[in-house]
Amino acid sequence: MGIAPREIEPMESDDRSRAPGGSPAPPPPADGGGKAAGSTGAGGELDLEIDEIEPTSTIKEGFTGQER
Amino acid sequence: MRTLLVFPPQAHPTQPALCLPSLTAFLRASGFPDTHQRDLNLEAHEWFLRRARLERSRARVRDAFCALPGGRPLPLPEMDRFRVLSEAHASADAVVDGIEEALATLRDPELFYDYDRYLRAVKLLDRAFRLVSAEHYPSSLTPHNYTLPQSIEKESDVLAAVADEEANFFCEYFRAKALPEILALAPDLLGISLTYTSQVIPGLALARLVKEAAPGIHVTVGGGRLAYIGEKMSRSGRVFSVIDSVVVLEGEGPLLELARNVAAGKERPADGVGNCIWQDGAKVVVNPPASPLPIDSLPTPEFDGLPMERYLSPKLALPLAITRGCYWEKCAFCTLYKVIGPGFRQRGLDQVMDDIEAVTKRWNSDVIYFVVEDMPPPVFKALPAALRARGLDIRWWTDARLERNLFTEELCRELHASGCRRIAFGFESASQRLLDLMEKGTNLDEAEGILRRLARAGISNTLYTMIGFPTETREEALQTLQWLRDHQDCIDEVSLRIFYVDHLSKVFEHPDRYGVERILVDPAKDLQVYYEWEPARDGTGGMDRREARQLFFEFMAALRREFPLFRGDNLLMFELKSHYFLYLCRYGGLSFLRDKSAVDVAEPLPADLRGARLRAPDGNRLVELPYDLRAIAERLNEAECAVLKPRYQSGNFKEKLFEEMAGAVPAAEPAATFVVYRARSSDLLHLGRDAARILAAVDGERTAGELLAGFAPAQQPKVERFLRDLCARGLLTAAPAARERGPAARARGPARVGAAVAAAGHLAIAPEADARARAAETMHVHCKPTAV
């Protein structure tokens, strides 16, 4: 199954039934969908996490730098 | 009689190699003036790094991304493909739009030295390599390697790869450009240099194409790599379906004889040529060794014919040889002294001065890399005066041993005055017991003094260091790490690697002397060069291989924490040697990166954030994915660390990773997640769901205040802090908005973020994108040009 077409979900909608790739839809937030912008997640907590994704590197190949 | 010598991909595209210029000069001076040379490595890189070609990669990656599986657990091999395609897809627009500026920066004599700009250029270049690689997954091209699904350790794999034009994607360039030009030149003799492992398959593939199109051309291969595998590769004779002869060891003499025989129209040109292997009917013939030439007799290398103005560097580091072979010839781990020449030879200093004068004038560069195994003490002592006497003002670096009684304060000062800015030493270990077992002939007690005297003189150093030499204990390895830490005030660079036995080394010949119980020879790997082994079971064998590999990563983690050169993005500088050297010359040391570890990404914050218009920086791209890329990246990186054998030795793409780890690494479960590609630093960040939605709602028109008004009052302070954080991370720009009154402002806000998203619809997909692309984009913010 390929990645399904999908539009950006607006903040007020928590309809996640169209998750990409047909992945199972996560459970709806405790406060339900269709709320005002920004109201999201259990108890209105916003999921504002940002985290760097670890890059690959030649270090992983067991040497550093160029061959002599 | 026309000869063409070519340097095939893949090697580093930042400077010319010495092999072809040496051979070209020798043939031209020996009665074959119609000798040409081409750096097909650089030309192939240029082929794939064109904007138009990258656009094609982008389209093909997008198609492959659309076809990725979803909705079911992903096993390890598919995780890898998912990561490669997702990252390439997210970065593709920025790569296509930025490649020309990045290449121009690397070639520009001033912009190159703007360190932040430089880092951005090399990071984008790295993404460009990944985009091209993703198009051809699982083949992979990096600045340091080119790996295919096939292994370089098996003849059958190599020959399969030579015929596989999809996986071995340099064939596209060969067919479209290199081959027609070679055929147009119509050489009688074609020499293909295979210096690096990564050149073997592309070089043989080029040979195949040439032989198919013009069977009359005598195609020979030579170069450093063939000193290790030339005979193994020729044994079955199958390789002679794509080439006519193999030259092992030093090439000048054999190539000249081949040229003479081809010119004379001999039916079997390789017959009787020293160092040559060829096929006579069904029989493989290994000719006797040729006598190494006295290098005094060789002409100055000629670089004419190479694309000297197009290497990815603002100034060329010109390679010149003073010696061939090693004057020490004893180290138990090393085999270079057996495969270069063999035999130690030295060029007269007057000739070296002539060489320097000729190439620096001709190519308008004052940077010389003396290509030696180890510069002999008498040369170190004589070089400063010789350069001074000829008025040669150059900057140079070289390799050396930590010779006792050589690097006095006075000599260090003289070396610096002569232009020496870096010396790379074979340090190996801080255990004197191991140094003695290796027969290094160096004394640890003297190393510190040498490094300090060089540092005081302004000469940077590199310490080649290894982990896992037979009998080394964990304690001894940690002792080495501690020594490096204790002396970091006088150490600039550590080049660290894990020791593997190669089949020409003393350890391979006499394993019992080195606590090696058994060397693990896999008969299926008929081209294998590096071997695993089992330590002696009586406790004298030292660490096992897994422990050594684990320690390697512990070392690297410590170096990345504690040495400026390894920190964050600075690592890129470390990996690009001639660039590093140019920076050393420009800034006199590493001070330029001591307070820096990453590309600057922060966007300025206006005093009145609420009144500022928000937009995403150009090239940033928000993507929704069906699996958690962050978790997958961590899982893949951990798995790669656990694999024993590095890929640069086996050459094939992650075969070991999948073989060893597939059962141990759990599959990735479906999980809708968001990532944003940050164009300025060419990296990816994982975003929480609401973080992604807020970022998607930024439309370039609405102010922060209007966006915040869509949130409940209790949430607004948190969201405002988050917007500031986005600016600090380079994910948002905030520019003061001209005061608007009247219907336009009233019509736009205050509004809910959902409405803002709808308003941003015209930005979501570039107008030129086709319907398929539109369908593929799960979440795509295609930003307008900056309106400053």
Layout of SSEs?
The complex is a heterodimer of chains A (about 70) and B (about 800).
Chain A: E1 50-52
Chain B: E1 3-6, H1 19-29, E2 35-38, H2 40-48, H3 51-66, H4 76-107, H5 115-135, E3 140-142, E4 145-147, H6 155-163, H7 170-185, E5 189-193, H8 197-213, E6 218-222, H9 224-234, E7 245-247, H10 252-263, E8 276-280, E9 283-286, E10 317-320, E11 323-324, H11 336-339, E12 345-346, H12 349-363, E13 367-370, H13 377-389, E14 395-400, H14 409-417, E15 420-428, H15 432-438, H16 444-457, E16 460-467, H17 474-486, E17 493-498, E18 501-502, H18 506-509, E19 516-520, E20 530-535, H19 545-562, H20 570-575, H21 577-587, H22 591-594, E21 612-615, E22 621-627, H23 629-642, H24 647-650, H25 655-661, E23 670-678, E24 683-687, H26 689-697, H27 704-708, H28 716-728, E25 733-736, H29 743-748, H30 753-759, H31 761-764, H32 771-776
Parallel strand pairs in B: 1-2, 1-5, 5-6, 6-7, 10-13, 13-14, 14-15, 15-16, 16-17
Antiparallel strand pairs in B: 3-4, 7-8, 8-9, 11-12, 18-20, 19-20, 21-25, 22-23, 23-24
Give a description of the structure.
- Chain A has one strand spanning 50-52.
- Chain A has a domain at 11-39.
- Chain A contains no helices and one strand.
- Chain B is of the alpha/beta class and 788 residues long.
- Chain B is built from 32 helices and 25 strands.
- In chain B, the strands form seven sheets. Chain B has a seven-stranded mixed beta sheet, with helices on both faces.
- In chain B, a hairpin with a 4-residue loop joins strand 23 and strand 24 (683-687).
- Mean pLDDT of chain B is 90; it is low at 745-788.
- The interface between A and B is large, with 51 and 89 residues.
Sequence stretches where pLDDT stays below 50 over 5 or more residues of chain A: 1-43, 58-68
Radius of gyration of chain A: 19 Å
Radius of gyration of chain B: 28 Å
Number of domains of chain B: 3
Largest interface: A-B, 51 and 89 residues
Mean pLDDT of chain B: 90
Largest sheet of chain B: 7 strands, mixed
What is the overall pLDDT average of chain A? 46
According to DSSP, the number of beta strands of chain B is: 25
Strand content of chain A: under 5%
Oligomer state of the chains in this structure: heterodimer
- Helix share bin of chain A: under 10%
Question: Biggest sheet of chain A: strands, sense, closure?
Answer: none
Number of helices of chain A: 0
Per the CATH scheme, the topology name of the largest domain in chain B is pyruvate-formate lyase- activating enzyme
Low-confidence stretches of chain B: 745-788
Percent in strands of chain B: 15-25%
**CATH architecture assignment of the largest domain in chain B:** Alpha-Beta Horseshoe
